[in-house]
Design goal:
This protein is α/β, with parallel strands linked by helices. It is globular, with a radius of gyration of 20 Å. 44% of the residues lie in helices and 12% in strands. It has a domain of 245 residues: Rossmann fold. Helix 6 packs parallel to helix 12. The chain starts with a strand and ends with a helix. It has a 6-stranded parallel beta sheet, sandwiched between helices. The relative contact order is 0.16.
């Protein structure tokens, strides 16, 4: 039997939370792997998956997280550990911050004092320029189309060729001067949704209904907004802050040719190229990130402002202790990489040629488990 107190570990998704559909889980395999690791270390743990509104404001997401923890962590003094991916890392920091006002009707501080660690995975601690691409009428359409494409890619692995050609074309045209694409998005979105199984179509509709409630998160992830977030959100004394960072292989003609003639891979790579360009634009976000990342240059290679995981700049990801670094894209790290032998088959999000495998996945989450266990 495990010795010591029960530990409560909370997995907090980012604004890509739209992949919580049926058997398709946001933290694919993460919960199961962590349970095995903690059991092997003889640690009594309960792992909870939070479900915040996908693109609600950080304050609202933080309040939802606090209420969920209050409902599930019990009334004793058992320790709490927060693990947030992407914007979920900001939710965790906000919840843990002292004297924060989340607009909830109970005293948060006794609960927050139980927090022992905050671990962030590829979180935009200094913002991401990509966020500005999802604002405005066209930006919101791009986000919706990217959402349904991601669901289809992770759930089914493939889309009809006729739809693939249109999606690839629309992302190429967004990079051309004067390219007007907004009229294509609504039709494309309908076609992609109609290609999904009936149960997924209902889930996608429910997701967009949630998105329609509030869309404040996207502009809050811009570097200018996160600058204010960092100025007002202090780390809590006695809490161990840790981070995992990743960068994807930069898109190149050589890597695109290596994908072969598969239409899905070629279309997905065009989307990745677009995401990487949007995430690179915006200049330097952080002046001292290189110092935190320097110990991992053997893994990451030379580091500069253009490095990102397809969603978040590499130099925006460190916070507190950097405990692990890897070559991966934004959803590889939470389990969405190619694993055809798994039941059900596990499809990659984007073919970034980052060569992230189950070995790398287990290495990452083993480190997370070990560092949580080592936290006083």
């Amino acid at each position: 039997m495990p010795s010591g107190p029960k530990h409560h570990v909370y997995l907090i998704p980012g604004f890509f939370g739209f992949v919580n559909f049926g058997r398709l889980m946001y933290f694919a395999h993460v919960r199961e792997f962590l349970l095995e690791r903690f059991a092997a270390m003889d640690i009594d743990v309960e792992i909870h998956r939070a479900h915040p509104l996908p693109v609600a404001s950080l304050r609202r997401r933080g309040a939802e997280l606090a209420e969920f923890v209050a409902e599930t962590a019990g009334a004793d003094a058992s320790p709490i550990h927060l693990v947030g991916h992407s914007a979920g890392g900001l939710d965790a920091r906000l919840f843990a911050a002292p004297a924060v006002d989340l607009g909830i009707d109970f005293d948060l501080d006794p609960l927050a004092r139980r927090i022992r660690s905050v671990t962030t995975i590829c979180a935009p601690h200094y913002g991401t320029p990509l966020a500005s691409s999802f604002t405005g009428i066209v930006g919101r359409r791009i986000l919706r189309l990217l959402s349904v494409f991601t669901v289809a890619a992770l759930r089914e692995g493939r889309l009809p060729l006729s739809i693939l050609a249109k999606i690839g074309g629309v992302f190429v045209r967004t990079q051309l001067p004067g390219g007007r694409v907004e009229l294509l998005f609504e039709q494309l979105e309908r076609e992609v949704v109609s290609s999904l199984p009936d149960e997924d179509r209902a889930n996608v509709s429910a997701f967009f209904e949630q998105v329609g409630v509030e869309q404040a998160l996207i502009p809050q992830l811009m570097p200018e907004s996160i600058d204010l977030f960092n100025a007002t959100t202090r780390d809590r004394a006695g809490v161990r802050y840790m981070s995992v960072v990743a960068k994807a292989r930069r898109p190149s003609v050589r890597r695109q040719v290596a994908l072969g003639a598969d239409p899905f891979d070629q279309t997905a790579y065009a989307i990745y190229r677009w995401l990487h360009i949007q995430t690179t634009s915006g200049g330097r976000l952080i002046q001292d990130g290189r110092e935190l990342l320097a110990p991992f240059e053997a893994t990451l290679g030379a580091i500069d402002d253009a490095d990102n995981d397809g969603v978040v700049p590499l130099r925006s990801q460190p916070w507190g202790e950097v405990i692990h670094a890897c070559i991966a894209d934004h959803l590889d790290v939470v389990g969405h990489f190619d694993d055809e032998d798994h039941d059900p088959p596990h499809h990659d999000w984007l073919p970034t040629k980052s060569k992230f495998t189950r070995y790398e996945f287990e290495k990452l989450w083993r480190k997370v488990a070990e560092q949580i266990a080592a936290t006083p």
